[in-house]
Amino acid sequence: MMVRIYSKPNCCLCEQAKVILERIRERIPFDLVEEDIRADPAAFAAWRYDIPVVIINGRLAFKLRLEEAEVEAYLHRVMDGTPVANSGGQGEQLPSQPQEKRGDGGE
User: Fold this and answer.
1) In this structure, what DSSP letter does residue 39 have?
2) pLDDT tens sequence across 65-105
3) Has residue 7 been placed in a domain?
4) CB 47, CB 53: distance < 8 Å
5) Helical ranges in 6-105 per DSSP H
């Protein structure tokens, strides 16, 4: 299972989210990738006011404050293959990467 957290330096909510994810990771194995949201223009445009943002297996799962029990329950549902409902900002579409312009007039 892949968990990606978008954060930035000097963000207290981001630090709290990382601590929560590491605690959960002691009980549930998953790969954790931390990314600076400023390095991804599409993510920055979509979520610059919503960090931390947690993506689980390519799907938006949490924004802003994380509650340990909610995150752990979500991870268990993902592991069990139970569909995760779209509620409270969960399951939203990820921002698409900007398309490159072809430069031949056929955009």
Assistant:
1) G
2) 999 999 999 999 998 887 665 544 544 555 544 333 334 44
3) yes
4) yes
5) 12-25, 41-47, 68-80
Tell me the longest C-alpha to C-alpha distance in the chain. 54
Domain count, the chain: 1
Within-domain flag for 68: yes
pLDDT: is 103 or 60 the higher one?
A: 60
In whole angstroms, give the CA distance from residue 30 to residue 48: 25
Residues in the chain: 107
- Residue 24 structural domain: 2-80
CA distance 21 to 9: 17
pTM, whole model, 2 decimals?
0.77
**Burial class for 51, CB neighbours closer than 10 Å (0-12, 13-18, 19+):** buried
What's the token pair of residue 39? 């390095």
Q: Is residue 101 part of a domain?
A: no
95 within a domain of the structure (yes/no): no
